[in-house]
Write a structure and sequence with these properties.
alpha/beta; three-stranded parallel β-sheet
């Protein structure tokens, strides 16, 4: 279902304003046990009510409903859905709506890509057993925090992480150390203090030592600056005598440099 006027031509017609509202599937109850792909998109954001329960389609593998308007007419937004009943789900795009409340992702062993940026999600309260997850973005959820998920524990094969412009404050030691397929991490504009930034950088060095590779991009801009921490990276021979030393320069981060490659 894709239309720029979706929501106008279905639902309840108000002759006084000559507009349609309350589309029939907003907050709907249905039973679609064999449905695998569901796409509901309205670029003009005319579907502004309560989101439905995706467990009513337990075989769902793909859910696309981005920039559609969910929750915009509800004070405080519409509750972010639970996917506990969708164990086959692998691709979700719900960015650009007004989802609120907490989000939990656990035991979704097929989930590969998950995008929920530009909503009003309050916290990530569950993050466990996501072995297939490679792409994750919760960017531009300004109230989302304070705990960053433990990516190494919950999603060891993660590649790209977008958690910028949120309200993350706390970092669990080791959260990045063993996710050795990471290609990019964007943590710009959160509330990490200097000691937390130091922990993140130390874990990223451990990550590199566990799987040496080039081209990884890390964005830590608009957090507290790191202190100057010398860290040792073994050479190709992994000798404890021949090592390379990296010093994180605070001025480099505060002025311009926020990429580690």
């Amino acid at each position: 279902i894709r239309s720029s006027v979706l929501g106008r031509n279905i639902g309840v017609y108000d002759p006084a304003t000559q507009t349609y509202s309350q589309a029939a599937f907003e907050g709907a109850t249905f039973n679609l046990p064999l449905l695998q792909t569901l796409e509901i998109i309205c670029p003009e954001k005319r579907i502004r009510g309560e989101f439905f329960d995706p467990s009513q389609a337990p075989s769902l593998t793909t859910l696309l409903s981005y920039d559609t308007g969910w929750g915009l007419d509800i004070p405080g937004g519409t509750q972010f859905p639970s996917f506990a009943g969708n164990t086959s789900i692998n691709y979700v795009r719900l960015e650009g709506n007004n989802f609120s409340g907490n989000m939990s992702l656990t035991n979704l062993t097929n989930l590969r890509e998950f995008y929920v940026g530009a909503n009003d999600i309050g916290a990530i309260t569950g993050w466990l057993n996501l072995p297939a997850l490679e792409e994750f973005s919760i960017s531009n959820n300004s109230n989302c925090g304070p705990d960053l998920p433990n990516f190494s524990l919950g999603s060891p094969n993660i590649k790209n992480i977008g958690c910028n412009n949120c309200d993350f404050l706390n970092y669990i030691d080791g959260s990045f150390s063993s996710s050795t397929r990471i290609r990019s991490v964007d943590l710009q504009n959160n509330r990490f203090n200097t000691s937390t930034i130091d922990e993140i950088l130390s874990d990223l060095v451990d990550n590199y030592n566990n799987a040496p590779r080039s081209g990884v991009i890390v964005n830590l801009k608009d957090n507290a600056p790191p202190s100057k921490i010398p860290v040792s990276i073994p050479t190709e021979s992994t000798s404890l005598i021949q090592t390379e030393s990296i010093t994180v320069d605070q001025d480099q981060f505060t002025e311009a440099g926020y990429f580690i490659t």
